[in-house]
Design goal:
Blueprint: E1 4-17, E2 20-33, E3 37-41, H1 48-55, E4 63-68, E5 71-72, H2 78-88, E6 89-92, H3 104-114, H4 119-132, H5 148-159, E7 166-170, H6 178-193, E8 197-201, H7 205-210, E9 213-218, E10 221-223
Parallel strand pairs: 3-8, 3-9, 6-7, 7-8
Antiparallel strand pairs: 1-2, 1-4, 4-5, 9-10
Helix pairs in contact: 3-4, 3-5, 4-5, 5-6
The protein binds adenosine-5'-triphosphate.
Adenosine-5'-triphosphate is lined by residues 15, 17, 22, 24, 42, 44-50.
Length: 224
Amino acid sequence: MNETIITAEKATKSYVTGSVTTHALRGVDLSIEKGSFTCIIGPSGHGKSTLMHLIGGLDRPNSGTITVAGRELSRLDNSSLARLRGEKIGFVFQFFNLLPGLTARENVETAMMLSGVPEKEQAPRALDMLSQVGLADKADARPNQLSGGQQQRVAIARALANNPEILLMDEPTGNLDSAAEAEVLEILFKLHRQGKTIIIVTHNSDIAARAQHIIRVKDGRIAP
Ligand SMILES: Nc1ncnc2c1ncn2[C@@H]1O[C@H](COP(=O)(O)OP(=O)(O)OP(=O)(O)O)[C@@H](O)[C@H]1O
């Protein structure tokens, strides 16, 4: 039997804005196998990003439980949760979120600083990560000197910096043209072959068609 790396049980999340309460997740149960390639799909505004934030420990549910790598997140205080995130999960977002004043290598190093990698190991490791995404020759370029696809590959290198088991991505190709998207996808499939657990929130049906598992979110619930 395959090992489960993430579970959600009866997870709910509501947002209160003024007098309006939005029930973004209304009771979600799921499990994701270690080493699997999963897409989370569904209509806009139905709770996909909220689900990603909960299973990534970026936000907490109002009720229910989330377990990541054997740790139930509600039992962790904020600093333990941040440590678990830093060790186990690499995040990639639609808009890259690179620091504009830093080079590609320095952007990758920022993730290592937070997790206490010794300073002299940071640069060689960042270069290794950049070469894994085919950007060894762009280590000294700043984000505005890189194409969108290259910027996203730097963001993937940064997400890999602490060798996480899980890569959690929100529309990682949503801002890319089809050639850049294909390059990023090849990297993600390579990482999957290397054993990473890949979870992608996407509207892109081509990506979903290539996933091993699909989680469909509708009206704050998992659709059958
Ligand atoms: N921080 C927030 N404060 C208030 N409401 C929020 C917040 N984040 C999300 N919502 C609401 O929760 C619901 C679910 O949003 P969510 O971002 O999870 O949807 P989504 O499926 O990821 O949408 P999209 O595909 O458009 O990104 C929406 O009605 C949204 O407006």
